[in-house]
Specification:
Elements: E1 5-10, E2 17-23, E3 28-39, E4 44-47, E5 50-51, E6 66-70, E7 73-76, E8 80-85, E9 90-96, E10 107-116, E11 126-135, E12 139-143, E13 149-156, E14 161-168, E15 177-182, E16 187-194, E17 200-207, E18 210-211, E19 214-223, E20 229-236, E21 246-252, E22 264-267
Antiparallel strand pairs: 1-10, 2-9, 3-4, 3-8, 3-10, 4-5, 6-7, 6-9, 11-19, 12-17, 13-16, 13-21, 14-15, 14-17, 16-22, 17-18, 19-20, 20-21
Amino acid sequence: MHYSWSGTVDGKNENGTTTGLALKKGEVISVIAEGWVKFRENESYAAPQGATPGCVTDKDKTLVTLLAKIAGQTYPVGNGLLHWVVPEDGELIFLFNDRPGTYHDNSGAFNVNVIKEKGDEPQKKSTNDEVKGIQNVSSYTFPVAPESQTGVTVLFNTHAVITVNIYTETQPDTPVYIVQGEGVPGTAHYGICTTDHRGRVKVDILSDGKAVKQTKYAYHIFEQGYTPQLAVLAADNGDGNDFNDVIVILNGPLNNSGDAPVGESLPLLR
């Protein structure tokens, strides 16, 4: 695949990494990011979407994450943006968002790839976009349809107490949707959550009150413009490395939600 820009974002560079991409308001870009940055002297690590569990307790959820800066304004990137509409004119800059004056003890970098698309073309053509991977953190931020209803399915396959929290960018500290209960094998939950105008939701999985050790993520957009979309986050709580202890599936946007249950646990059909 040909990228408009590929490079590394150094965790020690407080001013950020310039890309040379002069963007115009209304243009569309997609970004994929991966890698690790070590911050502080106590062996704390962060991926583009944030620190490993327990490393950061700050209320600023963008701390030690990957940001984009355009014309002096910063925007969360995390592990990627899909068909993101540029909000204003300016050069695209990426930076590791640490506290001012604390970059000196950082090491490592994020690898970032950018695709600059043409106008609103992604809204007109079909596509087959898929992103997937494995990570040692309990959460993943998915691009979903903004201001719409998204189906939530949770499949349990463990006796641990599972909690699935779903956050939006406009409510980063308070879940907009919660599934909680004993994960008895052969049980499923079905419901609907509503997304905000930014169209990005973070799914976080806990097992017995603690962050799961690994997650496997994937999302697929069969039709550009987010219609329809399937996103999956599968978790392993450390007892088998099989990623089937709990599986969260997002599908949407929904054309007609009807009276779908919210917060109810239903038997899984076999």
